[in-house]
Amino acid sequence: MIKPRTPPGTMELLPREQIAFQRMLDTIRRTFEGFGFLPIETPVFELSDVLLTKTGGETERQVYFVQSTGALGKLAESGAADGLPELALRFDLTVPLARYVAEHEHDLAFPFRRYQMQRVYRGERAQRGRFREFYQCDIDVIGKDALSIRHDAEIPAVIHAVFAALDIGEFTIQFNNRKLLRGWFEGQGIEGDAQMAVLREIDKLDKRGEDAVRETLQGEGFGLSAVVAERLLAFSRVRSASHDDALAKLAALGDGSPLFEEGRDELREVLQRLRALGVPEARYSINLSIARGLDYYTGTVYETTLDAHPQIGSICSGGRYENLASHYTKSKLPGVGISIGLSRLFWQLREAGIVGVAESSVDVLVALLDDAGLDHALALSQQLRAAGLNVETQLEARKLGKQMQYADRAGIRFVVIRGEDEAAKGVVAVKDLRRGEQFEVAEGELGSTLRVEREQWRAQAGLEAAP
Amino acid sequence: MIKPRTPPGTMELLPREQIAFQRMLDTIRRTFEGFGFLPIETPVFELSDVLLTKTGGETERQVYFVQSTGALGKLAESGAADGLPELALRFDLTVPLARYVAEHEHDLAFPFRRYQMQRVYRGERAQRGRFREFYQCDIDVIGKDALSIRHDAEIPAVIHAVFAALDIGEFTIQFNNRKLLRGWFEGQGIEGDAQMAVLREIDKLDKRGEDAVRETLQGEGFGLSAVVAERLLAFSRVRSASHDDALAKLAALGDGSPLFEEGRDELREVLQRLRALGVPEARYSINLSIARGLDYYTGTVYETTLDAHPQIGSICSGGRYENLASHYTKSKLPGVGISIGLSRLFWQLREAGIVGVAESSVDVLVALLDDAGLDHALALSQQLRAAGLNVETQLEARKLGKQMQYADRAGIRFVVIRGEDEAAKGVVAVKDLRRGEQFEVAEGELGSTLRVEREQWRAQAGLEAAP
């Protein structure tokens, strides 16, 4: 006998948690599709030489390699000298997207708007709330040669629509622009590689605090003067409180280098289009401390935080990059995109008590009082399914109390009962476990009645109508 | 520069193919939920010692092992002597289900009805139409200690609902019962291990043909007499043409051993309940040649074929088994289930010209004639999204002809145009690319008008209403 256990660092859910998770996935997907993003899926593994175009990074140290049984023996015989295994699990959805776009370039229309919601794999050290397998929900818009800044403005509208639909509390979409940052650094005499180093320090402000970052900036390696370091920190403190405040704060930054002005123009364009898109101004803010450590961002950068749960950190991040797939194609493919790490978010929301188990996906339990009623119960169940309801039939007669208890624990709302009295009258009794009510319906009207009840509740609960 | 390429044996789709595939997945999921099955997902990998409880089988030779970069070095140093890598990719959804049910036994209600639609991995030899990564869509009902035969009767009703909804042509659900087979074998003096061997030969009838199987049965190892072999083949030819014919053919088999009678009673029960469930009798048939080679089936067995495409073979198979998780728990967990190998089915349907690319998931392209119109186009797009439509906004002005061409190629049905004339009148022009018509609508009514058009078409096309 082997002890059944899930691998460390994976999130496996019980059915009612899985339903709650699936509803979040569905909501995100529906919203992405609402904005005209197209679905793609890529294989869980890539060829190792295709996936690992860069070497030695943190990411690569976390890569999972895959090999079939046959190849395993060969590798063991030959030792590591023979090179890497043929396959490796994807560690994000960005490298597979780059490979996909480069490989299918001639079959795609640009700008290419894709969404992708799949699991990714990282050999993280096992610890609470850190996952080795987790869902990412990504959108990206990829241009050919060029991509208008207007796409950067649409992205926060998608973020807004997603988190408004998920209904997990007030949130703020914060954004910045790395051109503005780097242009401003230039004005302070910070040039070249030092800019990236400073960017990474700024990015750590939330975690390390101002004092630690100030010390680093003035210390060895950076050697910024106290005045410049202080100016940098003051700059990083800029947050806007409203749309007009954002414009005013951008204006108050004074004149700067061409790169700085380009970044400022881009931020203004994003602000203008966001207003046209009707995104409520309480939901977005300029935050000049946002740098996003990843080296490949070059323009707009985004983070999103839950107002009541700042400790969760950014729940949706991304930005603009110059060239998606330079390792795979000579075509220049600039893009802008965001990612939601849904497994981690779900886990955090559950820890914070914001999401829990869902009602069952089963709407109706058709009870069975005695075996003679089975054929009728089966036919009635099919009638309810034809009306669009999800139905479980009790296939073995047992005490009604037991059946009620089962429905209650399972989160099933309606129990349909047909005893001798009801059969004689051509009706069924319906127990509504949510409302704690019982009522009678003519059999022929049962499907439409329960369907209406369900849709009314879904509408009240802010859920989409079910198909 | 590295040539971008997908790993051999994987199926990667372009967006419009992905949409077609996704619609099939959605239809299957909706149908499974309609019958009260609950979703679960398991990690893509399992601990190797948990996954590989049996050794030396065909399946294990096809297993993909997974190891992180660190572990890889260690394995290469120590050679294979150190044992298997820690993790392995799942090769089906049945072993993960067994592990899940055993691990979460005390948190589940039995009978446990679960569906699971995820990818599985097998290191198959690369060949056309054979996949190393493919979707399986499974349902199983798991009982504790016992599970009524009535569940076996519900399964074909699910199969019927799935393939009716997928609308890929006429199909036949064929079933048999291994108790009936083994009981009948007993009557012919075929006992013990020989029964399983004969079962496996019977299962090959379709592939090898009667002559080859007859020869094997009479040859060394089996040594059946010509009379018994002939009786066996005649028995295997039994197919029912209707519900009553099925009952008549079962009756005509004469009396048999207790095991035979048990199997026949079970088949009769399945037939009776299928009729109560309203499954059309043209859609199901008894076929006494179906044995399903897998050793773990013990009662009802199912196969499903497309009437016009017998060469595709079974598109949905499964059966009843005695004990799901004997490797992980002392609890006895009998079950019944089926599996649809959707990647392979999709590939075959595409080869046969039955499915192709889908219309776009994008309903509307909001065209842009000049940059001054952008803010209005953005606001209009949001208004359409609020009406439940999927909308792409053209963010950069270009010739209308180009925008039309783009929508046409992308499979987008509606293009919304607002030129000076339309703006003056407070209307927009709508080009319906499917009907080849153009009409004008007041801006305020655009959302509801297009929504109604879309729902009418979806209803005609037999698609579910979109949420």
TrEMBL record, chains A, B:
<dbReference type="InterPro" id="IPR006195">
    <property type="entry name" value="aa-tRNA-synth_II"/>
</dbReference>
<feature type="binding site">
    <location>
        <position position="136"/>
    </location>
    <ligand>
        <name>L-histidine</name>
    </ligand>
</feature>
<feature type="domain" description="Aminoacyl-transfer RNA synthetases class-II family profile">
    <location>
        <begin position="22"/>
        <end position="145"/>
    </location>
</feature>
<keyword id="KW-0030">Aminoacyl-tRNA synthetase</keyword>
<feature type="binding site">
    <location>
        <position position="122"/>
    </location>
    <ligand>
        <name>L-histidine</name>
    </ligand>
</feature>
<dbReference type="Pfam" id="PF13393">
    <property type="entry name" value="tRNA-synt_His"/>
</dbReference>
<dbReference type="InterPro" id="IPR004154">
    <property type="entry name" value="Anticodon-bd"/>
</dbReference>
<dbReference type="InterPro" id="IPR015807">
    <property type="entry name" value="His-tRNA-ligase"/>
</dbReference>
<dbReference type="GO" id="GO:0005524">
    <property type="term" value="F:ATP binding"/>
</dbReference>
<dbReference type="InterPro" id="IPR033656">
    <property type="entry name" value="HisRS_anticodon"/>
</dbReference>
<dbReference type="GO" id="GO:0004821">
    <property type="term" value="F:histidine-tRNA ligase activity"/>
</dbReference>
<keyword id="KW-0547">Nucleotide-binding</keyword>
<protein>
    <recommendedName>
        <fullName>Histidine--tRNA ligase</fullName>
        <ecNumber>6.1.1.21</ecNumber>
    </recommendedName>
</protein>
<dbReference type="GO" id="GO:0006427">
    <property type="term" value="P:histidyl-tRNA aminoacylation"/>
</dbReference>
<keyword id="KW-0648">Protein biosynthesis</keyword>
<dbReference type="Pfam" id="PF03129">
    <property type="entry name" value="HGTP_anticodon"/>
</dbReference>
<dbReference type="GO" id="GO:0005737">
    <property type="term" value="C:cytoplasm"/>
</dbReference>
<dbReference type="InterPro" id="IPR036621">
    <property type="entry name" value="Anticodon-bd_dom_sf"/>
</dbReference>
<comment type="similarity">
    <text>Belongs to the class-II aminoacyl-tRNA synthetase family.</text>
</comment>
<feature type="binding site">
    <location>
        <position position="140"/>
    </location>
    <ligand>
        <name>L-histidine</name>
    </ligand>
</feature>
<dbReference type="InterPro" id="IPR045864">
    <property type="entry name" value="aa-tRNA-synth_II/BPL/LPL"/>
</dbReference>
<keyword id="KW-0067">ATP-binding</keyword>
<dbReference type="InterPro" id="IPR004516">
    <property type="entry name" value="HisRS/HisZ"/>
</dbReference>
<keyword id="KW-0436">Ligase</keyword>
<feature type="binding site">
    <location>
        <begin position="296"/>
        <end position="297"/>
    </location>
    <ligand>
        <name>L-histidine</name>
    </ligand>
</feature>
<feature type="binding site">
    <location>
        <begin position="92"/>
        <end position="94"/>
    </location>
    <ligand>
        <name>L-histidine</name>
    </ligand>
</feature>
<feature type="binding site">
    <location>
        <position position="292"/>
    </location>
    <ligand>
        <name>L-histidine</name>
    </ligand>
</feature>
<comment type="subunit">
    <text>Homodimer.</text>
</comment>
<keyword id="KW-0963">Cytoplasm</keyword>
<dbReference type="InterPro" id="IPR041715">
    <property type="entry name" value="HisRS-like_core"/>
</dbReference>
